[in-house]
Amino acid sequence: MQCVRLGQRATPGRRNPEHRQLKAAVLYARAAALAPCADQAMRLVTPARREKAARLRLKPDRYRSLAAGLLVRRFLGVRDDTELTYGPMGRPELSTRGPFFSLSHAGDFAALALLGEVPVGLDLEPLSRRVRRGLVAERIFSAEERELMAGSPDDPELFLAVWTRKESLLKAAGMGLFQDPEDFSAVPLDAPALPALGSLWSFSTFVEQGHVFSVAAPAEGGALEIETREVPVEELLE
Question: What are phi and psi of 123, to 5 degrees?
Fold first, then answer.
């Protein structure tokens, strides 16, 4: 394993003291904690988020969606849909000047990444997620990524490190599902910067509370330094 067993918050790659750093915040909330106050959460999020959450039949999915909306409300001040705009590929941004951000929710958490200077992408997955790793790797991993996985086919941390890095890069690039993930590579995991989709990218991949997080941003902005915080539900509901 090259990356995610480095500790709670790890920025892979060699540090260059002359290379400036980008400081990104990753704020995450335990979605199930909203269960006793889901009605209140519904009233606080934007109408579009409320409608989206209401369509989700499974309560865990609904709580994760609500927690994501509350994170945007609490830390970006978004209380109405007009305060958000969407790029041609669907990447959300603030309508007025403000930090770049990215949302992700899976497992126990919803999470928000904030970065002031350049676009940012965030993805997270629980280590407990059951997935046919070989089949997924065959379908969406590049040849380099499949070669890396071949050495540790049963390592969930390695698999999820690659997976979340690819997803975070697509979000940072504003491409999402419009780009075939097999067309680019997010390895080697210890590279200071990686070329993909016509640009250079920096990554930070780390494990926190049983979940693998990856953050991506354009490497031209500098190396990524990550600060994380779990946000209690009481703070989200203020």
Answer: -145, 145
